[in-house]
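Structure tokens please, single chain.
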Amino acid sequence: MIELKGVAKSFGSLRAVDGIDLNVHRGELFGLIGRNGAGKSTLFQLMLGLIAADAGQVSINGERAGGPRFRAVKRRLGYLPENVVLYDNLTGIETLRFFARLKGVDTAECAPLLEQVGLTHAAARKVREYSKGMKQRLGFAQALLGDPPLLFLDEPTNGLDPEGIRAFYQTLRARQDGGTTIVITSHILAEIQQRVDRLAILHSGRIRAVGSVQTLRAQTDLPLWFEVLTHSADTDPIAAALRRAPFDKVTTNDRRVAFQCPRHAKMAAIAALAPLTDRIADLQIQEPSLEDVFLGWMGASA
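Here you go.
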């Protein structure tokens, strides 16, 4: 659905995007993460055709950005910017109808979309009376107008409460199940960790890594955390067994023994614990979070 080849963009002396190659597959939920200034917003604008690349090529659904047929492609894109700006004097339903007319979409879609994002009760209220989260929901509804085959969502859950975030991702999953391709950025890495199919880590205008969360975990080779819950407060036999093996940071607290384990030694850790199963009430293995993975890649690029 999206193909970038050697894409670069500068603003004066700032190299915002620096030779990016990237493919996003049709029907994929794809994440872009990076520090502030990494180039995420510029990359969005390039893919949307809002700005032109200085070098390289951007193609959406087989059409080159800036080409003779790209204007028709742009009309079918859905976009939610990081900072939603709406007309305060319009009501919620008037706002959606305004954007529907701009997009050439049947205004009959507007009321069902307001219901889908949980704003039916506020349809007749002026946008100036909306909270930040309500404006974010209205902006999301605007992006969904016309059932676009490709959605670009820049920090889409800003201002949403936990219930709103859950409903937002339920809507995204339903759209994805219907074949929509979705590109999303978020600084809340725990929020997208279990939801994206693949993601790219951007740093200084370049892509440092691309893959699923599990693939990137393996590439950073970060350790696993084990936590053992014992039947009694006597944790010494388990701690002693682990300290004789190649494990690190073995700590005890009440009935708990925690330790780090290199990814390649996971089975060795289980083997070390196997003779002591009569003492073990429970075992938890914690994978590195997406935040751990991100910081690991940032450390590697320092």
